[in-house]
């Protein structure tokens, strides 16, 4: 699943290539992916991209369209008949790539007709210079979500996001306040988007490894030194990952993410810090990775699938 660093990489890539370009095409191939109906998807056509930003794991393509009264007497396309400036209507194309979604960029958008139900493409967007992108989703479980809204906080997932962990206002004391009183395993806290925005399964593994902390440690039980360590690991891990993603085209981001991982996805390999074997704990639909020597005092964590069978 794309997490904050990869999403930020996509944001930077799109901002460089789409700002000040008009949208000429917005074609939906998977109707279930579109979660809004007002404004309609077609309302994006003719609007101009004015910015691309990130909210947690959501990408927000901001556009504007000029609402000038229809008249032949107006001085130009941007002024009303009395000479006052015309108003602009902002629209936001927001999307979340979910577990198996991705963005495929084209310098020249293919002219082929998209056949709904016959392609992994969920949405195709084209620009006035001939470029564009597809939002694609692999597998049979479709969770990719697309929204067209007037304000980003109209998207429910954005409205309930916690603070951004790389924001200037995300201090050590803010993190301590978020952890206080939570009798929840720290791995789950880091992944909860309503507590901290943008971190998922992969980077929570990496942060906890850097902090030398068990994924099963209770958030409320962390002492001041452990919170200090967790905060430093969180900021440095995400800052480094964002820097690695910056400037890379979408096709390279996934491989760059894998190469940068110390423990996540590296079960059976040697820990780069101590040389111990990286271990996994498996759940119903994912797993976590950790180093016993670095994080759990040498203790092996129980496989949740096996524990459930033994009950």
UniProtKB/TrEMBL annotation:
Give GO MF terms, alphabetically: 8-oxo-7,8-dihydroguanine DNA N-glycosylase activity; damaged DNA binding; DNA-(apurinic or apyrimidinic site) endonuclease activity; lyase activity; zinc ion binding
The catalysed reaction is: Hydrolysis of DNA containing ring-opened 7-methylguanine residues, releasing 2,6-diamino-4-hydroxy-5-(N-methyl)formamidopyrimidine
InterPro entries registered for this protein in UniProt: FPG_cat (IPR012319), FPG_N (IPR035937), H2TH_FPG (IPR015886), Ribosomal_uS13-like_H2TH (IPR010979), Znf_DNA_glyclase/AP_lyase (IPR000214), Znf_FPG/IleRS (IPR010663)
Cofactor(s) this protein requires: Zn(2+)
Instruction: Tell me the Gene Ontology biological-process terms attached to this UniProt entry.
Output: base-excision repair
Q: Does the UniProt entry include the keyword Protein biosynthesis?
A: no
Q: Which parts of this chain are annotated as the region Disordered?
A: 61-87
**Domain FPG-type intervals:** 262-296
* Compositionally biased tracts (Low complexity): 63-72
Which residue ranges does the record assign to the Formamidopyrimidine-DNA glycosylase catalytic domain?
A: 2-134
PANTHER family assigned to the protein according to its UniProt record, in alphabetical order: FORMAMIDOPYRIMIDINE-DNA GLYCOSYLASE (PTHR22993)
Family that this chain belongs to: Belongs to the FPG family.
Recorded protein name is Formamidopyrimidine-DNA glycosylase
Source organism per UniProt: Microbacterium lacticum
